[in-house]
User: Fold this.
Amino acid sequence: MTNPNQPVVRMSSITKHFLDVTANKNITFNLYPGEICALLGENGAGKTTLMNILFGYYTCDDGEIFIKGEKVNLSAPKNAISRGVGMIHQHFALVPSQTVLENIIIGTDSGKGIFLDLKSARQELLELQERFGLQIDPDARVWTLSVGEQQKVEILKALYRDVDILIMDEPTAVLAPAETVDLFSTLRSLVKEGRSVVFISHKLNEVMDISDRIVVLRGGQVVAERKTAETNTRELANLMVGRDLLEIIEKKTLNAGQPVLQIENLNALNDKKLLALKNLNLVVRQNEILGMAGISGNGQKELSEVLFGLRDPTDGIIKVNSVPLKFGSPASTIQLKMGRIPEDRIDTGLLMDLTVEENLILENHSSSEFHRYGLMKAGRIQQFSEDLISAYGIMTAGRDAVTKSLSGGNLQKVMLARELAGSPTVVVASQPTRGLDVGAMEYIHQRILQERERGAGILLISEDLDEIFALSDRIAVLFEGIIMGEAFGEQACREQIGLWMSGVKT
Amino acid sequence: MGEMLNIAFISGLIGATMRMATPIIFATLGEILAERSGVLNLGIEGIMLMGAMTGFLVTFASGSIWLGVLAAAVVGMLLGLLMAFLAVNLGLSQHVSGLGITLFATGLAMFIYRLHFGSPTVPPIIQPFKQITLPVLSKIPLIGPGLFTQYSLTYIAWLLIPVMSILLYKTKIGLKIRTVGENPVVADTVGVNVILTRTLCLVAGGALMGIGGSFLTLAHQNMFLIDVIGGRGWVAIAMVIFGNWDPFKGTLGALIFGFLDGLQLRLQGMGIAISFHVFLMIPYLLTIIALIGVSRRAAVPASLLKPYRREEKGG
Amino acid sequence: MISFRIVKREPLPGWAKVVIPIAAIIVTLILSAIPILIAGGHLWKSYYYLFYGALGTRFNLLETFVKSSPLLLTGLAVAFAFRAKFWNIGAEGQLLAGALTATALGVSLGGVPQPLVLPIIIIAGFVAGGIWASIPALLKTKLKVDDVVSTLLLNYVMIHIMGALLFGPLQQPGSSWPRSSAIIKAACYPILLARSRFHMGILLSLFAVFVIWFINKKTTFGYRSKAVGVNVRAAHFGGINTTSVILWTALISGGLAGLAGVGELCAIQYRLIMDISPGYGYSGIVIAMLGNLHPVGVLFSSLFFSVIIVGAQTMSRMTGVPTYIAEVIQGMALMVMLIFLLFTEYKIRVMRK
Assistant:
């Protein structure tokens, strides 16, 4: 019987360096049996790194780890799993093309000799599902499941391996409010039997809701530890960023002008050939920010891809400043002066192995301003990139620095600089602050507001409701490919929006 | 034209199809193993050539043809290990590592052969495999004689096809291989040793490729010529795509190629008045056309071509 | 328990780009001692004759340049393609396409004014190679066919086209061998230095180095092809017509390889034979990688390989080491270079637990 006063996990003096940054500095972290401990901190604070070390995925440069009283040497996840530690990452470790059953039993020893024994594994799985109320069809292929269901598969995977220390990294980032409730009740039933859960998050309200104890990380170090009952969001926010979290958003009241972006009857298929956008209609005007709220997976990806010219819709018209957009042509979007911020800046937006200058010039390298007779005008280009670097405060060794050496916030600044340099008519930003620290977030919000003031119309697609509420003049909610409703910023009520996000029409 | 449809012709063609397909079946199975674990092995052509040369050399020197086959397998394994070192342990570009191995192995094969045999006017030969006629099965009308009078290596190839299929789909290690090929991060987090799995697949695959190469100098012909492989390794690469990375479907592709190869020889022998080079071209052209047909629906193992390194900071 | 991890390292300073290939060459030469010794050759004598055979006399030195010309062109062809991630393994077939075209024209342009003959042949050879390379490029961009496989298979198709023509319409009348008639005098590359085979094509290939360098560094096309090679998705997002870039890259790449074929025909063989290329197209891959895909790097790396290939002939005569050692060294050089390149970005961390 585990002693509730003895930590089931003890990590002491953990230090971890990466090439350019020290992610964990001398961290001491304990976990007790039967508790849900929240690991709180903003993006980049070192939470995921610390837990990856506990999971054996990373190795620490310094420090010791004790699990259930025994000193351990975790050189691979295999060791951690054998000691009862399991981790569910933000991006699920599932193979989409395989079935639920295959995903769960991979690597385990169930079976006769060298052959897989699917029958008894299935039996065991069904028993687990009963116990914890996590019903999923074992023979379904994972790619057909919803995100919430996939998360359940991940939890079952851990339970199948008798994990009693479960680490969850930002588990609610991809869940609808109703699914979050579901998850929380599952977690509570897990710890009732003596297990422990580490809940990594940067969302204060949820942390207050689910945890028993909170450990706050900032800049790679532990700055505080609190019992949840003895603290509040204001104090936590302060601890998390070292000052009051309240971002000061000064939004001038402006009258929205002419429509700059008109989407009419847009229909589009997703990668599974199912209809992701259904007769979508939307208008964005000058001097206005339209915030598109919604849980990921409801058509945002497809909408942004159509707007960016990366996906062909099956039907519909899109007009920028009343000029129709040519579908499937990024060049057309550039020509019509649309500034685009893609959600995956690294893979889709930037050429990481090229220099900052080469990235800044991507969209106008063949304009008459920067080239002549097929030759690049090196001098003009240099001036252009230097101006942008200083205007946007991009922290880099120089215009010749390789782009992948930049931090996340600065990468996004390069993206912004490139897209906004030409004073676009309309700006479509998809998850622009995802994964960034607070400082970078604030900068990007300021920029977006500046563009609004300049006269651009902005479509802000974001899963961060705080961001949507702070910046938008109007809010629309996307659910299963249709707009559930629109509300004006000041009047919008969070409950209303939440219901729309869950598909409840009011 | 009437000659074409007589039984002897058809029978001979069936036999030839199986024969010509054999090296490609071995090579394709070996490549499927590698690619299913996530590694494109472009060393295949060189490994087959080294297998052909080694098999020939060892048979010549020892008088034992099975020893030659074994040596070819061992050489294939060593080269597979080298490929694993470059592409898996070091994570170098799979394209270039593989091509480097083909170039190295090709040069090495010719170097060693020349070293041992010099440049004789009459190329050295060995006693090749004899074809074996299976007792009952070869009496089946029409297809029997052709299908069941083959070299032992061909029969072994046939057995390997279902074995490979069972391995991939019904065993624990098969699930590990497939998971490593689809998402090595997933495999790593559940304790599968990604590097070891890929290495074993490359080594085993290399053995098969080596044996496939040796078929050409120990059974099909009885001497070693520089161009004995003649691009069959690349055809196997194409057959893996054509067969959607599945052992049975890949074999189908190999059979089609074997059929065309066999047909081309027979038509030449009948003095059909088209340049024999045109015939030689046809299998390759048709392989390309087949690829066009399947490339859209390809079920490529998702991690193919990506080296796996654990400590890249993702956050 | 000791284990190794490969982890990222700080970027190396600029001079590393030059030192690394040189170090790779030196290590390769040292490793070549192994096959030399296995062949029973005397080590120092072999090295001596290797270098003497390539550089020791005026004729040998000029021969080294002669041999470097096709290697330089195929090396440039492959480097140019790889830079845009168009995996052109088909330089061999594109070379043959150029040689074929040069042959067909070279035997039949008798009535054309002499000064025009060579320019026509050169341009036609370039275009022929370019077209042969554009087939797999189209297959890749429009039909998603893997370029490695398609370029490779087309090599064999071209060899057989050549064979069919050499046993057919192009065959020298009266001969039973697969060889063409000799090309007309006007189609032969002028020899520039007496008592050698040092020909105009060598200058042409040097000029190509400059042209490719210029395209890569100064032109908008060079920027676009670099972007496509680095991240085709982001290049597409940024408005670049990636299909067009890949096609033009293929045309130029194939054209360079075609020029290599024209050179072999019009400067060395003067008629088409089956063995016109001893694998120059494949050597081009090693040369391109060793040159780090940079035109000047390719220039030096092609000279290195030329030294090896030419020198190996003399070495073989004097020490009995088979000439195939050149191919073995080639393969080793590629692997050594790859490993060295890895260590410009990564280092090994030894973990003791």
